[in-house]
Amino acid sequence: MKKIINFGEEVEGYVIPVLNEREIRAAAGILFLATYTSLMFILFKGNFIPIKYVITIFLTDFLVRVFINPRFSPTLILARLIVRNQTPEYVGAAQKKFAWIIGVVLSAAMFYFFIIVNAYSPITGIICLICLIFLFFESAFGICLGCKVYPWFFKDKVQYCPGEVCDPKQKQDIQRTSSSQFVVLLAFIAFVFLCVYLMNDRFSEKPHDLFGKTTSEQTK
Asked: Taking the model in full, what pTM does it have?
């Protein structure tokens, strides 16, 4: 029974239970894509059916992760298959469990509003946005925002963070950002604003059919 109801893996060389960050990031990417796509259905089609399925799957998956075992989480199993040829990157299980409890709370709130009450409001919009931000940061940058909050509630030192960010160390040359790079970044931001200012009317024009199919069909 202990092997079923458990959180984290015992890996040689690690003094606390750990999880594979590569699987977690892949699973976050899967959930981000599903959530984002379902929100697009709402925005462009007014279709709330996909988001209801996604919320149900999201909540079920996180309940399995937190209260049974991450090994049996469907998205983590799928993620494991996807990244099975990559070298594992181990992270502490404790802070991940805390972050996923936040996920349970957010998805449970969404389940209540969308499934039980069958209503939407600015509250559901804000919760969806928070979920997307959490998932995007995890999948794109390997930054667990929920893990950042963990030390506020627990005094134990966080161990085995992604990218070893928990351990203070001197940055290598390849990690340093030079003043010229900052100048390039600022110039690029200025370029974007300039494009918006000068080209907005041009960009707002609807593209025409290059081969004139639409025009020929209208003339028939």
From this structure: 0.83
